[in-house]
Design brief:
Blueprint: H1 2-8, H2 12-20, E1 28-31, E2 34-36, H3 39-54, H4 59-70, H5 76-84, H6 98-112, H7 121-136, H8 142-164, H9 169-202
Antiparallel strand pairs: 1-2
Helix pairs in contact: 3-9, 4-5, 5-9, 6-7, 6-8, 8-9
Domain HTH merR-type: 1-68
Protein name: HTH merR-type domain-containing protein
Organism: Pseudonocardia autotrophica (Amycolata autotrophica)
Amino acid sequence: MSELSRSSEVPVATIKYYLREGLLHRGETTSPNQARYDESHLRRLRLIRALVEVGGLPIAVVRDVLAAVDDPDTGLHRMLGRTVYAVTGTGDGGGSFAERAEAEVRALTAHTGWTVSESAPALAGARSVLARMHELGHAPDERTLQRWAEAADRIGEADLDAVGRIADREEVAETALVATVLGDALLAALRRIAQESHSAGRYPDGNE
């Protein structure tokens, strides 16, 4: 276990905790006090760290995600959903603008041709955000929403193209999670860069 700890950079005490919680499968027993760990344990520790440290997920949720990863009867689509939606908020319902936001989200899914389940957490999240924007009096117009959705569609397709090049289920889950959590932060930064560039072109004032 000490070698596994050095290779994974995960403390021995943490590895023992993961073993007790059933997140990490036990090694091959070689003596009463020794066990052999292999590459599969390193991969699993990498995925657990991604879920806990990058995704910020509680252990109970990590256990649920790993159960989907380990179950060969859970298809990739469902497994990815349980992984990605584990870190997806659903919002607060939308308040007095809920119906308007609901109609806008339905119009966007029709515009892009998206096929999603009615219970998808991201739908609730989108409705909640749009409702809050209406409440603040700064909701985007229809064309802006459509352009945002079209950009999101291209990004989503690129995400799945990247995942499609991976064969290992654990690596698929890890890639999807990291791309979702850190990818969202990267996209936000790229959006700010684009905003600055377009602003400088449209409203030149000679100042840096």
